[in-house]
Amino acid sequence: MKARAAVAWEAQKPLSIEEVDVEGPREGEVLLQVVASGVCHTDAFTLSGDDPEGAFPCILGHEGGCIVVECGPGVKTLKPGDHVIPLYIPECGHCEYCASPKTNLCQSIASTVWTGYMPDGTRRFSKNGKPIFHYMGCSTFAEYTVVPEIALAKINPAAPLDKVCLLGCGVTTGIGAVLNTARVEPGSTVAVFGLGGIGLSAIQGAVMAKAGRILAIDLNSDKFEMAKALGATDFINPREVNGSISEYIRDLTKGGVDYSFECIGNVNVMRDALECTHMGWGVSTVIGVAGAGKEICTRPFNLVVGRTWKGSAFGGVKGRSQLPGYVDNYLAGKIELDKLVTHTMPLEDINRAFDLMHEGKSIRSVIIF
Ligand code: NAD
Ligand code: AHE
Ligand code: ZN
Ligand code: ZN
């Protein structure tokens, strides 16, 4: 079939709106109508050319709200009309990762999905016979896409897809990192570096965990208003701090924060985020994605004295079994999504969503098909 899609022909070039060919679903796959898709910083990261796994041409997008159109052979748990959120981390239910309660990183199809192919090593999108890569197994910047059944969370059809699409990445990642990865306890002091969709959602998670004090840190002071509305208690612009931000935060909090979260993808900030935590028990969680060749460093002593460095992907959430509960919590008013959607636009305007993100003017733009 034909579908309108935003094609990334090469890195660092604007997306191009094209009519592409989409091949139907094969064994274990599902054809989806994409109703809405959020735009995440990771899409911009891959488009920048800094992603070592970025393959071009591709169709980006991984924060989708979708409806099942057609199921391929062997699909047992979904039917046309079901509402679903695509998962860049699937849940096969059988691999050793799915069997472990310690991780959500199902590896059943990782080797193909992260390099732009379907699990069987082929592709579904093309233009004039030229194949186009999938992205993170999702490719939601297209009217129609094909996703494996094991990478689809079936959700309550009452949920508005133009809002719960944010649970396909940003909001779940931020909340889950706090609740599942760091496991913040009531009364804790928490520092969140970077107040985009991820950092603001980490603030939501910290409020859910009943943190006592939540420090919101960003170079763009315009982000503080939303951080405050979501429950942050202290606001720090590093540009207004003389000297080291980690020392400043350790002084402000009498020794350091209990938990910190890096939601930017900057390895220098990752170091600050670790070093602003309290000696003896501080835990810092890396969420931001850093470019090819970047490495983190700190004095090993900072770990010897009891700090812990962790990382989190999709908030540690096992998508098929746990994401539907996030949707229900949104419907019950326990998760904020509406405020985070600062802009909506048709697919034709998708490059504006990237501009707004780079200019620091949006939290989340949602593409409505
Ligand atoms: P965003 O662009 O919306 O927000 C980033 C924020 O960081 C902005 O407000 C910006 O002003 C701020 N910032 C930039 N440099 C800063 C600095 N030096 N100090 C303080 N603040 C600074 O991005 P987002 O969509 O929220 O994504 C954030 C990061 O999380 C990205 O790296 C993204 O790739 C990554 N991410 C990771 C996962 C995961 O599962 N680990 C999931 C989603 C996104
Ligand atoms: N391709 C990058 C890594 C990108 C990355 O870390 N992706 C996150 C999700 S970001 C969503 O916005 C993730 O979940 N990764 C898990 C995995 O298995 O890759 C690189 O550096 O190679
Ligand atoms: Zn994302
Ligand atoms: Zn698995």
Care to describe what's here?
The chain is an alpha/beta fold. It has two domains: 2-168 and 336-368, Alpha-Beta Complex (Quinone Oxidoreductase, Chain A, domain 1); 173-313, NAD(P)-binding Rossmann-like Domain (Rossmann fold, 3-Layer(aba) Sandwich), CATH 3.40.50. It contains twelve helices and 17 strands. Strands 3, 4, 5, 8, 9, 16 and 17 form a seven-stranded mixed β-sheet that branches. Strand 10 (189-193), helix 6 (197-208) and strand 11 form a beta-alpha-beta unit. Helix 5 (170-182) crosses helix 6 and helix 8 (245-252) packs parallel to helix 9. The longest helix has 13 residues, at 170-182. The relative contact order is 0.16. It binds nicotinamide-adenine-dinucleotide, ligand AHE and zinc ion (2 copies).
CATH fold descriptor of the largest domain: Quinone Oxidoreductase, Chain A, domain 1
Q: Write down the secondary-structure element order.
A: EEEHEEHHEEEEHHEHEHEHEHEHEHEHE
Into which percent range does the helicity of residues fall?
A: 25-40%
- Structural class, judged by helices and strands? alpha/beta
Bound small molecules, by name, code or SMILES, are: nicotinamide-adenine-dinucleotide, ligand AHE, zinc ion
CATH architecture of the largest domain: Alpha-Beta Complex
The CATH superfamily of the largest domain turns out to be Medium-chain alcohol dehydrogenases, catalytic domain
Mean of the pLDDT scores?
A: 98
Distance linking N and C termini:
16 Å
Instruction: Return Rg in Å.
Output: 20 Å
